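Review this fold:
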Amino acid sequence: SRTSSGFILKRPDPLEGSGRFFMGSFMFVEINQALEKIRNVGWISRSEWPTNAEISPSEVDLSESEGRLLRSVPADELDVAKMQSLAQAAGLDLAIEYFPVIDSTNQLLMRRIRVESADTTLMVCDYQCAGRGRRGRHWVSPYARSLAFSYAHTSSKALHELGGLSCVVGLAVLDVLVELGVKDGRLKWPNDVWIEASKLAGILVELANNGSSTVVIVGVGLNVALKPEERALVDQPIADLRSRGVILDRSTLVLLFVQKIISYLEHFEKSGFAAFRSAFDAMHLLHQQHVVVHSAIAGESTGARGRVAGVGDSGQLLLETSKGVEELLGGEVSLRPAETIE
C-alpha cells in the first residue's frame, strides 16, 4: 500500500538487510530520538545528547540551561500529519518519510533505490548536514529555516531523453513563487532559482538506470528564513522567502512545491523538454546575455565566451560564439555574466 512511512526512527535490524527500515545514515538515530523527545516533552538533560555526536546541540538550535537542552525560540519543524493531510487533499500518492536530521535527502533516496523501489517517495528533513549543490558544493541548510527535500519519480524515458529536467523543476518552483506573490523570480541555467540578483534555491536532479525505466531523484534546497550569520557563510548574495513576505509554514510550503513538481514531471513525460523551451528562455536570467563559461570540475574559466541564444530540445545551452553556435551540457559547465569577469 502507499501509506506514509511517517516519522521513522526505528533502528534497522542488521538481519533485515537494507530493506524497509533502511536508514542510510545510522549515526543520526540517537540524535533524532533526542530531538523528538524535546519536541514532545520540551527538554532533555544534557547527558541525554549522544556522546561523540557528529552534530552539536547548537547546530540544531538548542540552548543549554541548568543542565537541560531545550528550544529558547520555537522552531518551524515539519509536521508529518499535516503534510499527509495536504497530500491526501491534493490527491497525491506519496510515501512521506521525515527525519529531523539527515546527511542528505538525495543521498538517502539514491541508496534506497539500489535495494528497493522508492517510487513517489518524498524524503524531508529539518536539517541536513551533507546537503549538496551542483558540482558537490555544500548546501547551507539551517535547522527548520530552509527546505530540503527529495522526490523519487520513475520515468518511462531513457536516460538520454531526460535532458533539461532540472530546468523543468526550476519552472515548477517559479510557478509556486508566483502563486505565493513573489513575481520577480528567475532561473539561472541549468538549476538555480534567483530572486533579482540573489540565489533562492538550488535543484539537484540525479538519475539511475532501472532496467526498462529510469529513476529520477529530484532534490530541492530552498531558503526560507535565514539569519545574518548564515548568509555570511555563503559566498554569493542569497534570498529567502520570509524577506519576500511569504509567511506560510514549512510543511505547507513543501507540499505546494512537490505538488507542482509532480504536475510538471507528468507534462514532461508526455511532451519532453521541447514543450518547456520557450518558457525557460523567457525566465532565464542570462538569456541573450554575454557570458563566460566555467568548468564544472575546476570552477575556472574555460576561455569560452558568447551570447546565450536559448536552450535546445534536450535542455542544452545554445551559446553563440565567434566559431558559431556551441551546445553546452549542464553537467559540464556553469555560466557567469561576462561583465563580472576581469
User: Anything to note?
Assistant: The longest strand covers residues 198-210. Residues 250-271 form the longest helix (22 residues).
